[in-house]
Write a structure and sequence with these properties.
This protein is of the alpha+beta class. It is 21% helix and 35% strand. β5 and β6 form a beta hairpin.
Length: 190
């Protein structure tokens, strides 16, 4: 019945700091509650493709949304500390201070996975429409298109299962096994 999907939730407080300050001085916003990461469900023509994902902070006492941030496509979501994650908005940097390290790790993994997956899907769709005239930088890739360490999260205890493999053979050619077609297309481009 809802027009949105929730991917992660955790207890958190919101901090902010000035953009481009020489020394980052964090200020507590006095906002705390349950932080949700979600997205609007697919519709025929979404109002803004780049802002389908969002963070919402719900006050635990009143149950009302007290803060919301629409996640831009190229967000650089960083795990500064296991309990403190940061990203840059248009007017300031934001920080999430989590109460539990395990919840924070799951939250970061969901944010990075969903935003990266959406960026790849949008890139494939755009390429077919505009034939490479528009380049979209995925949230967790470097400008050269390589995979960065922040894209890879640690598995939770006893949950690791090897389902796919990507490597380079002795001739310098990428090889893959067990990947879906979206990933195989991206590797073929490399």
């Amino acid at each position: 019945p809802h027009s949105y999907a929730i991917h992660a939730a955790a207890s958190a407080r919101i901090y902010h700091a000035q953009l481009n300050a020489k020394q980052c001085q964090w200020s507590y916003s006095r906002l705390k509650g349950t932080l949700f990461f979600g997205n609007d469900k697919d519709t025929d023509t979404p109002p803004n493709e780049a802002e389908r994902y969002w963070f919402r902070l719900i006050d635990d006492v009143s149950g009302k949304t007290v803060w919301m941030f629409k996640v831009p496509l190229g967000i650089d979501y960083e795990v500064d500390r296991p309990f403190f994650h940061v990203f840059q908005g248009m007017s300031r940097r934001y920080g999430f201070l989590f109460s539990d390290d395990d919840e924070a790790a799951v939250f970061a993994g969901k944010v990075k996975a969903q935003v990266f997956k959406y960026a790849i899907a949008l890139k494939s769709r755009t390429r077919s429409i505009r034939s490479n005239s528009m380049k979209i930088r995925a949230a967790s890739t470097s400008p050269a298109g390589t995979i960065s360490r922040c894209m890879i999260s640690s598995p939770t205890p006893d949950s690791f299962k090897h389902v796919a493999h990507v490597g380079v053979n002795k001739d310098g050619v990428f090889e893959s096994k067990g990947l879906d077609s979206t990933w195989n297309d991206m590797i073929a481009e490399l």
